[in-house]
Amino acid sequence: MEPEAKKKVLRMINYGMYILSSRAESHLAAATVNWLSQASFTPPLVMVGLKVESDTFATVKKSRHFAVNILGRNQKALAQDFFKPSSVEGTRINGHEYGNGKTGGALLKETPASFECKVTDIVERGDHAVVLGEVVEVTINREDTPLFMRETGWFYGG
Amino acid sequence: MEPEAKKKVLRMINYGMYILSSRAESHLAAATVNWLSQASFTPPLVMVGLKVESDTFATVKKSRHFAVNILGRNQKALAQDFFKPSSVEGTRINGHEYGNGKTGGALLKETPASFECKVTDIVERGDHAVVLGEVVEVTINREDTPLFMRETGWFYGG
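Predict the joint structure of the above. Result:
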């Protein structure tokens, strides 16, 4: 398998973009992710790929909960603000207002919607772990079309 | 958690669309899927949610391999042809020309690109199983922009 061909083909997979957050005791972590999909209707499960050597994954593993904030069509800049390490100041994380979800993660006020999960399974096989979570809470802030990663010009995959 | 709100929020997750195929001995299965994402760079892994009570999942479980055909922007009709049970006639599956992948699954001639995987892990937790596979082969047929499920007007999720 030729590495460039593999990269080209895997970059044809389409993604949305999300800010995933988790709290373990007083530590609040958040990061932009795109390797995320629903994985069951009953119970409602989602699966997400998280970098094994990341603060976010360490926090999810400890807390066994995470929140997912769904980015709207014009929120590319918001996605970018969560490429860097998490920094909390008062009621803001990385400069953006948030509230505490029922399961501890940050629910951003600016994103159209969020959901919260309880971790059911973790598979550590590659450089990203597959985390499976059951959706236990949802929050709707406003109507919006969700962001397509392809429209941002960024790629994470390949 | 209110069921309608849960459905609305989970339907904001963005997806591409794919035809997944697998062969176990003489049986060739194929079905349209959208719950699919990359899950690791090294090794290159993908994760896919497959309905537990489906011919495709039974075949993947038996063969421990699958092929993924990536649908192009104008291939909504092709996606629809694989909502029904698989039917092979000569070199066509559900009416579409295919070749046999190195790992046995059907590689459609019409789709822009395909990749093949060896199953590494299966998590059976909900009504869909999470299948994790290592990408072992890729095929590129032509340039195209991949299909967004949102543009088809269909939803599979919620």
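Chain B touches chain A through 55 residues (CB under 8 Å).
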